[in-house]
Amino acid sequence: MEGKGGWEANLSAVSKTATKSPPAPSTSTATSPRRTGHPKRPNGKTLSAFITERFDEFSRSQKEVARYIVDHLDEAAFLTAEELARRASTSSSTVVRFSQALGFEGYPELQQAAIEEYRTTIATSSANGGALFSFDHSELEGSLSADYSNLEETARKLTSDQVNASVAALAEAQRIVIVGVDQMAFFASYLRHTLSLLDIRAEIVASTGGESLQRLGRIDEDTLVIALSAGRAHPLLMRAMKLAVHRRAHTLAISDATLSEVGEHAELTLYYSSNSPSFARSNTALMALVQALAHGVYARDEAAHRDRIRAFKLK
């Protein structure tokens, strides 16, 4: 018992000494940079702007996180690191490393910056007329509200110069090849259909099959290659765009990523917003953009297209 009492007394003395002693300075600062929890951003610069500015510094997987945050800020502001990683097709550890690469201590600090930017955006929107739906809405209203916002954001981010140049490229191309894989194959087909109404022929590449590869093989400098992309770019899209650049063909990328990987190889890039509260991306803005491009081509020479459209409507 005496030995035990002496042991307890020594433990108590050590505990008191430990609580009173100041913490020892870290000796690992040379190899591990200190995180303050605050991003090294210039005052007044938003998280989206800061990410865009430093985009080229990130690794390939970190770029996927960057793209998702910039284009889906309203979702990223309220997602966990695991949920954000899943939607960006990467890992939660990549999300954490991305946060630290920006100067944050971890993901919670990055998320707070996203929330602040989102609140500022909502406040600006409310000052300009208010939200279409309240936050207490049904699943149907939530979906419709997201699509309404997607159309607004798409229209806000596109410029008349971008659209006019894209319409001119469609109207003046001698040959058009539209590349769309998986769900984008439907929109490639729909774009081909709308162009066919204006007597503009287009070919579709939707797989790595022999016929599709033959169409890619015929790309030359008189060809306009259009790539439709959603989320991470399919390898076939990248292959088609790199081949088009190599053969000096004209290129147009239509993507739901502002920092589009496909857009890096395109002369022209059109952005559409695909935010959705559901399990699948929204394609409302993409459909509207495809129809707007076709209408733009039609409006260049309505007299030349009017009879053909009238005949189609009578079928």
Summarize the structure.
With 315 residues, the protein is of the alpha/beta class.
* CATH evolutionary superfamily of the largest domain: Glucose-6-phosphate isomerase like protein, domain 1
Terminal Cα span: 104 Å
Number of self-contained structural domains: 2
Strand residue content: 5-15%
Separate helix tally: 14
What share of residues is helical? 55-70%
Low-confidence stretches: 1-39
| H and E order | HHHHHHHHHEHEHEHEEHH
Second rung of CATH, namely the architecture of the largest domain: 3-Layer(aba) Sandwich
Number of strands: 5
Query: What structural class do the secondary elements suggest?
Result: alpha/beta
CATH fold-level assignment of the largest domain: Rossmann fold
How are the strands of the largest sheet arranged? 2-1-3-4-5
Please write out the topology:
Elements: H1 2-20, H2 47-53, H3 60-71, H4 73-76, H5 81-87, H6 92-101, H7 107-127, H8 139-157, H9 160-172, E1 175-179, H10 184-196, E2 203-205, H11 210-217, E3 223-229, H12 235-246, E4 250-255, E5 268-271, H13 284-300, H14 302-313
Parallel strand pairs: 1-2, 1-3, 3-4, 4-5
Helix pairs in contact: 3-6, 5-6, 9-13, 10-13
